[in-house]
Amino acid sequence: MNGFIIYINEPRSVSLSKLKLKQFINETDINVSLFEGVYRKNAFQTWIDSNFKLLDAQRWGTGQIDVEFAVFFSHYNLWMKCLELNESILILEHDATICNKIHLHLLESFKGDILNLGVPSWGSHIQGNWPNPWLVLSDGIRKRPICKNKHDVFDYNDKNHCPCDSRWLYGAQSYVVTPQGAKKLIDGIEEGILPADIYIRQELVDIYDYLPHPIKQESDFTLVQRWGKNPKQHNY
C-alpha cells in the first residue's frame, strides 16, 4: 500500500514530515512518501480557480480560513491521486505519529470507503463528558455507527445536541481512502465543500475505525487553529 504525508514547503513542515517519514519507514511496511500540499498563500486562488462553492460558509473560519482551504485542497489532490492509481492509499498529515502497531494486512483488506486510523483530535469527547461507545469497541476494523440524533458541536449554545462524535472524521491526520470512497468524496463536491475533517462525513461516505487507533496528532505547532486556541501549539 502507498501512503502519502502531506507537507508544505516551509522549514518546520518539511523537517517534521521527514521525521514522520522515517518513523513510518522504520515501523511499518507501507510505502510512504512525501506529498507537497497547497500552501496557504495560494489557497484562495486555488479555491477561485476550482469554482467550488461552499456548502456552509459558517463552518469556515474556526481556524485560519486560508489554511482550512489549503488543507482541503491538499486532501482533494490525494483523492484524485487515489483515483489515478485506482488503489487504496493512506493519507497522512505531517504531524501524524504512530502510537500503536499497524497491521498492513488489515489496511490492504479494507473494502469500505474511509478507514480512520487517527485518534480524534477534537470534538465533544475531548471534554470527557460522554462515553462514546464507538471509541471503545473491540480491536480491529469497526464500522462507525450512524447516529440519527441532532449533531452540531459548533453550536455552543445548544445543549441538546448529541455529542457522540460519530458524524465527522474529527481530525484528518490519518485515514485510508479507497477508490470508491474517493469517488464519493469528489462527487460530493458538487453540493459544496467544507473544511476537510468535517467534509469527510457519514452523509457522504461510510466511516470505519481501526481500533485501537494506531496514529495520533503530535506537534508543537498547528497550521489550522488560530493563535490562542491551544496554548501548547503555535501557528506557523
In summary, what is this structure?
It contains six helices and eleven strands. Helix 3 crosses helix 5.
Indicate how many domains the architecture comprises: 1
Q: Which CATH architecture?
A: Alpha-Beta Complex
Distance between the termini: 31 Å
Broad structural category: alpha/beta
In CATH's first tier, which class applies? Alpha Beta
Instruction: Supply the CATH superfamily name.
Output: Spore Coat Polysaccharide Biosynthesis Protein SpsA, Chain A
Shape: globular
Report on the biggest sheet: 7 strands, mixed
Provide the low-confidence segments as ranges.
224-236
Q: Strand order of the main beta sheet, please?
A: 2-1-3-7-5-8-6
Mean pLDDT: 86
Number of strands: 11
Q: What is the CATH topology assignment?
A: Spore Coat Polysaccharide Biosynthesis Protein SpsA, Chain A
SSE pattern: EHEHHEEHEEEHHEEEE
Helical content stands at 25-40%
What is the radius of gyration computed over CA atoms, rounded to a whole number of angstroms? 17 Å
User: Number of helical runs?
Assistant: 6
Beta strand %: 15-25%
